[in-house]
Write a structure and sequence with these properties.
It is a single chain. 38% of the residues lie in helices and 8% in strands. The chain is mostly helical and 122 residues long. The chain has one domain (2-113). The strands form two sheets. Strands 1-4 form a two-stranded antiparallel ribbon.
């Protein structure tokens, strides 16, 4: 039994599921077609296609981030690409906000021209 993971549905809304018995359930496929999926998936899921109990904690952190930013800022907004995110995970230097702990004008410009980001559903 694998623990749930955070994923994006076809409408690009953040969703959470309880658990699943096999790898990559069909309802999760929408996540991996989304340009920003790597920002929402726990590293162990991203690297090994498996979830662990630590994934639930990761998901809680992502969920809290989305709530606190009202879904305006994606998690790890300072990582410009999937590769920079993966490099930070592998080197142990990944941080939620980056060194400056604040957004700069480049971050804001990136968000303004970015594809549709996941939406919070109230």
């Amino acid at each position: 039994m694998f623990y749930q993971d955070c994923y994006l549905d076809a409408g690009q809304n953040i969703k959470f599921r309880g658990a699943w018995n096999r790898l990559w359930p069909t309802w999760q496929e929408d996540t991996f077609r989304h340009a920003y999926y790597w920002r929402f998936v726990a590293p162990e899921t991203l690297f090994y296609q498996k979830s662990a109990s630590s994934s639930v904690i990761w998901n809680l952190g992502v969920f809290m981030w989305q709530l606190s930013t009202k879904c305006i800022l994606p998690p790890f907004f300072h990582c410009r690409s999937r590769q920079s995110y993966l490099d930070a995970v592998l080197s142990g230097t990944l941080s939620l906000t980056g060194d400056e702990k604040d957004m700069d004008s480049d971050d804001l410009a990136l968000l303004q021209k970015a594809e549709r980001l996941p939406q919070c559903i109230e």
